[in-house]
Amino acid sequence: MKELPTLGFTEAVKLASGRILDFKGRSRRSEFWWWMLVVFVVGFCVSLFISNMLVSSIWAILYMFCGLSATARRLQDSGKSAVWVYISYALGCASTLYVSTSGAIAALMDKMDSAHPNQAAIEKIAMQYAGDFAIMGLLGCIFMVSCLIVFIMTLIDSKPAANKYGPSPKYVEE
Q: In 3D, which of 49, 51, 48 has the Cα closest to residue 113?
C-alpha cells in the first residue's frame, strides 16, 4: 500500500464542499480538518453580526450541519460508527433550541442590559428559573462530553485496507 500525499487547503475544501450531503464513505483527516476550519471561521464571522437569540440559534444549527457529513465520513474512515456524531449533533440542537426558547435567558439578558443591573433582581430570576438553568447546564455538559468523544475519534488514523465503509481515501494499492 502506498500513502497518497496530504490534501492541501484548496483541494480539501473543494472535495468536502462537493460532498456536503454525502454521509457515506470515508474522508481523510486533512480533508476533514481543512473543511472544519472553514466551517468554524465562517460560522464565527457570521455569528458576529447576529444579535437575535433565535436567529443565532438557527444559524448555529445550520452551520453545525455543514460539518456533519464530513465528521460522519471521518469517523467511518477510522472504522467508527457515524452514530456518535448524529447523537452529538442532536444534543447540540436540543441544547441550542432550549437555551434560545427558555424564558430564563431572556429575563436574565433583560436585567443585564440595564445600565445598573440589580443584584437582587438577578438573584430572583436565578431562583425563579432554577430548573431551566439546571436543564441548560445538564444538556450543555452532556453535549460537551459527546463533542469530546467525537473529537477524539476524528484524530484516529485510518487503516490502509478497506473497511465496511469503503476503500481508504489515503492509501492506494501499488
A: 51
DSSP 167: S
User: Is residue 159 packed enough to be buried (19+ CB in 10 Å), middle (13-18) or exposed (0-12)?
Assistant: middle
Q: Looking up cell 471561521, which residue turns up? A: 41
Cell numbers standing for residue 142: 452532556
Reading the block at residue 71, the C-alpha cell is 465528521
Mean pLDDT of 91-119: 77
CB-neighbour burial class of residue 10 (10 A; exposed 0-12, middle 13-18, buried 19+): exposed
Q: Find, among 81, 82, 47, the residue nearest to 62 by Cα.
A: 47
This prediction has a pTM of 0.84
Q: pLDDT tens digits, residue range 127-136?
A: 888 888 899 9
Contacts of 103 (CB under 8 A, 6+ apart): 129, 132
Determine contact, residues 30/12, Cβ cutoff 8 Å: yes
Taking the C-alpha atoms of residue 128 and residue 139, their distance in angstroms, rounded to an integer, is 19
Matching residue, cell 465496511:
164
Position 56 pLDDT exceeds 90: no
- Quick one: pLDDT at residue 54? 80
Query: Looking at residue 105, what is its pLDDT?
Result: 75
Helix axes 9-18, 29-47, angle to 10 degrees: 80
